Amino acid sequence: MNVFLQLIKITGSSVEPSVDEKKRSKAFGAVMGILVFLLIFIPVSFFVGFMVYALTNGLVTLGGESSVAAGLKLMLHIVALFSVVFGFSVVMSVFYFSSDLDYLLPLPISPMKIVGAKLASTMLSENVMECILVFSALVGFMIGYGFEPPVGSGINVVSFFAAIFGVLTFPVVPICYCAAVCLIVMYFSKFLKNKDRVSKITAFSSIAILIVLVLCLNLSNGFDTNVFVNQLINNDIGLLNVLDKIFFNVPLLSSAMAGSFVSLLLYIATNAASVAIVMLLASKLYLKAVISLNGGEGAAAGRSSEANIEKSMKESSQLMAYFKKELKILVRTPAYMTNCVGINLIWPIFIYLFIILQKQSNFLGDYIDKLKAGDEQTVLYATLLVFGVSVILTSLNCLASSAITREGRHFDVMKYMPVDLMTQINAKALVSIVISGSGLVVYIISAFAILGIDARFAVYCVILSLLAVVYSTYLGIYIDTMNPKLIWEDEVNALRGNYHVFYNMALELIVTAVLCGVSYGLFRLDFLPVFFIQTLILILSAFLSFEFYIVVKKKGVKNLEDLEM
Amino acid sequence: MIELKGVSKTYNGKIKALDNMDFTVGDGELVGFIGPNGSGKTTTIKLLSGVLTPDSGTVTVNGFDVNKEPLKAKASIGYIADNPDVFLRLKGIEFLNFIGDVYKTPADERKKTVDELAERFELTNALNSQILSYSHGMRQKLMVIAALMHKPKVWILDEPMTGLDPKSSFELKALMREHTKAGNSVFFSTHVLEVAEKLCDKVIIIKKGHKLYDGTLAELEKRNKDKNLEDIFLELTGKQ
After folding, report:
1. Are B38 and B144 members of one domain?
2. Residue B98 is part of which domain span?
3. CB nearest B129 (choices: A302, A310, A332)
4. Which helix (DSSP H) or strand (DSSP E) does residue A62 occupy?
């Protein structure tokens, strides 16, 4: 096999499940894969496609020919932006910190080939979700624009080719950006040449970029749908104009989708040029930077003193010892810090957006007034929303669904320590409950305080939210005990290659949907007043938490006992 | 005291790693476990430490059946695994304190042991750094200190000398002798025949999951006159 193709296979292999993991999860993986597809991918795709369809349809009717693809452009910019924000830490990890480098660097292979293979495997692994989103956006555009629209010539054969190229190559430019920035930063900054510091700075820079971009939307001036559509028609949105220049592939693809052959050629050429530039940078900058990297703090730097040992030797229970150990590892490992802990810091951005939008356009004014007045239906909606948001946000941070996976090759330690496996699991659960729960409690209290909602209802929601967190945590851990991904090259791959976060989310969605359906049914049929339904939801949440605790205690522990590496 | 009776272990229902293995390590005995790569040494040690479960047979440590009373058995073992790359983001001192909590060692006792062993292995100055920054040898030394902190009666060590500098290797060997002299048991695997020759009261040689020899080195040499341990080992296990 060609050396380059072999390299792509090697660099991408740690994301794939091992042969044993595949065997263990065959039936379970197939069922969960279908559920994830039906409950996550299809709804997300439908939402993206519908948004682009609706915008395109509106713009075709309202605007001129030049604004036809503005809706598609907006959606593609959002996809590209998220690719960059989440791609930085992946590229940094794959290029500079994966353990395969120990074997690859001494081999007589050019840095261009190594980077090329790593770039290709990163794009391939990032491509799945992106492909689905881009595909949905392009289909939404094609339906919205149609063959015979009131303006323009409609989609043609070029649009179809553009769609194929777009779906397959859309991540190229965002990932090339990440690669180029990483190559330059790592080469020039001696200060940053510390593994953990670099990874943490990169990850938090990505979050900072997201915050700055949200602030750039300038929502403090208010949000008006009509104004927004007019701005789209007139190409008058400052942020989008900036993004057009950064993600130059997006306007080209949008224009190609509207039928421009020249744009299609330019789209292909700019993608090729992006890769060429990264390869050129790699040939000049990669090797020197990757070789000079050091890992962590130098041992000589840390001087331990008598007092330090004295101070450190404090007794704790086994549960607390595991809890502290788990917390320290999560906070000190950049990949875990970003994906499991730091992700919880993103939600206030959405709360900020929500509150600003609410203050300006008062789009939820009626709803909030009804909630304050104790309108039963509105109170029920709010209750279900709190439950749904709590379980989804808990599953999104993958603290629980990667709890066993994070042990990796030292899973054996869990077995030879004289500590009951359930105690070890409880410590992991406690970490998830504390991190997810404390975030949610703060968000609920702040949102309710700002919106001026009844304190008693806030207390109820906090209790409900915490119960939902407990249930979601034990469900996530149970899923991870069934087939943890223990063979991984670095921590980023441990999380990327672990599909349990999606499985967890799919099951959470089913439970939430059932809960919503039953509660709404009971309410509509006038069986019970809302207070009783709320109480039932609380009891059900407590039951789910207890039930999944028992499931983990009986079946989860057995799964781990039977698991041999 | 360690006892294996009729222990067999198969991986994935196909690969027989151990076949009807029996041996005993008595109190006050220092036993070396020798065999070629893939002979079943690590599997045996993982069975002793409770990481693996046997298909058949019993594993007893200090009178506790490892599978029936796992927590009591594990608490009485000082175990060093073949890979010291554990919890690399913790500082050395944090790792030792964690182990102290796990084995319920009183704070003053763990402080005393850490002080003494860290000094002996010249690790004191590195204890405030993350394990990630340690060399392989330093990580191995840390594992040794951690394994001995709760004063276990039985030591089970998988390739404990790997990566240790000569002084630390000397110290560990001295500790092993001191431990057995006090009436305790030490069972360790090694590839270095000279170590087994100089250190052990008894050796167990295995190949492909079968025990080939279990006895003293003097007896082995008596049976094979004019041959050194290396020649005897190669003859027993077959030149590869």
Report:
1. no
2. 85-151
3. A302
4. helix A42-62
